[in-house]
Amino acid sequence: MTNVLKMDATSNLPSDIKPHEGEFRDHHHYYACRVYYEDTDFSGIVYHANYLRFMERARSDMLHQLGMDQRAAFEANDGAYAVVDMHIKYIAPAKFQDNLLVISHVSKLRKASVNIEQIIMRGDEKIASASVQAAFLTPTGRPRRQPEAWTNAFASVIADDEE
Question: Can you list the alpha helix ranges (DSSP code H) found in the chain?
Answer without folding.
Answer: 50-65, 70-75, 148-156
